[in-house]
Each structure stands twice: as structure tokens, then as C-alpha cells.
Amino acid sequence: MAERYTTPAEGTLDWHVPLNENFDKLDTHVELRDAESNIGQYDPRAGSKFLATDTGTVYIGDGSNWNRIGSLSASDSSVSEADDGSLIAPPGDVQSVIDQASKSHTWAQGPSRTVKLVSGENYFPSDTIKLRRNVRLECNGARIVPDGDFNVIEMYRGTQLVDPFIDTRPVSWDSAQVVVGASDASKIEPANRAAVENAYLLGDKGEGIGLQFLGGSSPCSMQVASGSISGFDIGIDCYANGSDTSGQGDWSNGNRFYGTLTDFRIGVNHRSEGAEVSGNVFRLMVQPTDDVSEWLWYMEDDPRSESQRGDNSYVKGSNTMLVYPWDTSLFMENNDYNDGGDRRAPIWYLGKGKNYANSMVDLSGTLGNQFIVNNSDYPDRNGIFTYHGGKVTGTSQFSHPPSYQPNSDSRMWHDDSIN
User: Fold this and answer.
1) Compositionally biased, Polar residues: which spans (predicted)?
2) What are phi and psi of 280, to 5 degrees?
3) Burial of 162 (C-beta count, 10 Å sphere; 0-12/13-18/19+)
4) Average pLDDT of the residues of the chain
5) Residue 34, CB half-sphere, CA atoms under 13 Å: how many?
């Protein structure tokens, strides 16, 4: 550093002259970084370098113009490697670096190579980022904003996604931010996991999907995700996208999410094209909004007629939610089952079909089965529970009246249930 810059000697009268020369040198020694469209805002001093953060293109100034000299690409010779052996993926090059990392190791069941995004950068992918097998992607606070309407990240087996910050609010978008189990992935299972850690997913209220556990060409089974999901049409989507009900079929089963859901239309959704959605577990802190929120938990109807149902298709069973639901009165504005009277809107829809053994544990201790619209063919094997059994005993210091009135005909469920 001392050889590149001049330090004025003690007592120098014109000490400002060498300092100004140092600042002039900094203009060429320090790399400029910005979006490529903003390059015209910078003076192309001779020898100065400009890196386009959205495309990875590198320019060198000649005193009059910026001259393109290349791009940060994912060839073996050009990818930056950290001291710990991880690969650095600059904006514009994420997929190619992931592909290189995936090809470099093929033997491991778990992630064996780490790719890191650059902290503080904005990434604007023009297509889905496919997190290939054996890769751990650390996002390090980088913000990902898709340049179009597509799934932002799709995960394959043997992968980890750490600290993703995805923001689809600036764009017109209606897809899924993170898909655990790409449509062409092999079986996602505990031995070949696809884990999401500390996600921060932001979307417009009522648009798109935050996190999806996707069973399709094979099961999405027993995967774990955590984080904060804010906005969206559906916060968490458990989707069995196929009709194969065999043991290695198209299930979405045994998956778990721990974290916070806010500002959604539907908090957790279960849907199927025939295969089972079962055994999924959620531990949530939930805050709805009166702008769009309709349901905390929604299990779609079996689309077949009653005479066609009864087999093992379209099953949604043994799913469990442990939840502290804040401000459930905010569901009243948008829920079609709200009658505007002294009963609050229901928060859980159980659709027609073989939907059974599903449980909600209400950590607030204020809800009951009358907050379920229960249209299941097996209605009695579902319910909302509290840790005090629905009634506080042993103290006279706590009294909380129910937030609903009893059904007139003494049925357990919401008054508009078909059961």
C-alpha cells in the first residue's frame, strides 16, 4: 500500500498535493460496481474498472470510453474461490457456478460443495435458479429479485439453501419463490435432503406462493424448512402434483416448517392431483391481514363425486399444525363463511373427501372446533385442541370467554359445515 500511495513528510507545506494525487489513483485502483445500465454515470478514467453487478460484464476505461473486456463466468479458470474452498457466484452467473459446483463432486448424499452469493448485492435472475445435487447455496444477505414470472429457486436432492432473501414485490409475479423438489427431481428424502434454513421470503399480498413442498415425478418426503414468509396468495403449499399413490409415488408427505407467516390469503394449503398429502407438520407464529387473509389452513376438496370417492386418492391425512394465531378477527373481512354476526370467521377449511386425522393445536387457547368448516367424509377424526382442553381450571384469576357462540343445533363444527 505504501508503494502505491504517497505519505507527506512531516512539515511538508503542500501536503495536500500528494493526498489529492492519492485520491486520483483511488479512482482507478478501486473497482466500480453498479447495474450495467448505469455505466454512463461514471467517468471512464484510463485504467479504471467497472463491474456490471446484474450481468457480470467487466469494462476497463481508456480515458474516453468503457471497453468491454469479458465477463465473470463459471469456467474452471475464472470462478472466484474463497479460502474455505467455496465458490463465489457474482450477479449474472449464479446458475453456471452452481452447475460447476455440482459437477465437481458426484459421490455425496449431502451437499459437498458450497456456493456463496456476494453479501449486499442485488441479483436479478432471468430464469429459475436450479439448485443442483450436492450444492449448498449460502445467500449471505444478498437480495434476489426475479426478472420475470417464474419459480425463483427449485431444489434437487442433496441440497441446502441458507439465508435466502427473495423479494418479488417489485415485479409482476405469480409463481413460487422456493420449490423443495423440482418437477424433474429424484426422490427427496431424509438421506438425500433438500433443506431450507432461515428463509426470508417477501411477496405482494395475494400473489404467488412463498414455499412449496412439491411431490411429482417422485415423493417430496420429510424435508425441513424454516424462516419468515410474508405476503403471497399461499404462504406454504403442500402439493402432490400427480396421481401415483404407490409407496414411491407423487406424495408430499412428512415435511416440516418452523417459523412465521404474515399477510397471506391462505397460510398453509394442501392440494393434490390424486396422490397423498400427509404427515406434514407446521409450528407457526401467524399474523393475518384484513386486506386479503381468508384462511389459515385450507385442504382442498376431492374433485370427484361422492360415489367415486373412498379409495386412497386425494387423501389429506395426519397433518398437524401447532400455531399461535394472532388477530383471527382479521379473517372476517375476506372469508365467505363469515356471517357478520357474533361468530368470528372460521380459519380452517377441511374439504370433501378422505381428509382425516388432521390436528391443529391452538397455542393461544381461545379457539375450538367451531372454527373449522368441516366438509370431510371423515369429520370426527379432525379437530382443534388447546393445552387446557378448552377450559381453564384451578384458578379464578383467568377468564377468557369463547370467541364464538354455540351452534344452534349443537354440532361441533362451524354452522355452515355439511356435516
Assistant:
1) 396-410
2) -85, 145
3) middle
4) 85
5) 10
Is residue 318 within 8 Å of 268, Cβ to Cβ?
no
Pairing, β 49-52 against β 57-61: antiparallel
Amino acid at 324: Y
Asked if residue 166 lies in contact with residue 230, where contact means CB atoms within 8 angstroms, the answer is: no
CA angle 349, 352, 356 (to 5 degrees): 75
What is the C-alpha to C-alpha distance for residues 237 and 270, in angstroms, rounded to an integer?
Answer: 6
Query: Residue 118 gets which letter from DSSP?
Result: P
CA distance between the termini of the chain = 79
Q: Which residue has the higher pLDDT, 352 or 417?
A: 352
DSSP 88: E
Nearest Cα neighbor of 342 from 294, 408, 391 is: 408
Residues 381, 393: Cα–Cα separation, whole Å: 26
For residue 324, what is its C-alpha cell? 399461535
Residue 19 has pLDDT above 80, yes or no: no
Asked if residue 403 lies in contact with residue 414, where contact means CB atoms within 8 angstroms, the answer is no
d(CA 235, CA 267): 5
With bands split at pLDDT 50, 70 and 90, how would you rate the model's confidence at 76?
very low
Burial readout 210-242 (b: 16 or more C-beta within 10 A, e: otherwise): bbbbbbbbbbbbbbbbebebbbbbbbbbbbbbb
Residue 197: its H or E element: strand 194-215
Q: 269, 286, 270: which is closest to 234 by C-alpha?
A: 269
Least confident window among 40-54, 172-186, 387-401: 387-401
pTM more than 0.90:
no
What is the per-residue DSSP string for 91-116? Answer: TT-HHHHHHHHHHH--S-SS--EEEE
Cβ pair 111, 158 in contact under 8 A: yes
In sequence order, the 6+-apart residues with CB closer than 8 A to the CB of 15 are 8
Of 257, 304, 249, 305, residue with least CA distance to 276 = 249
CA-angle at 179, arms to 382 and 124, nearest 5°: 145
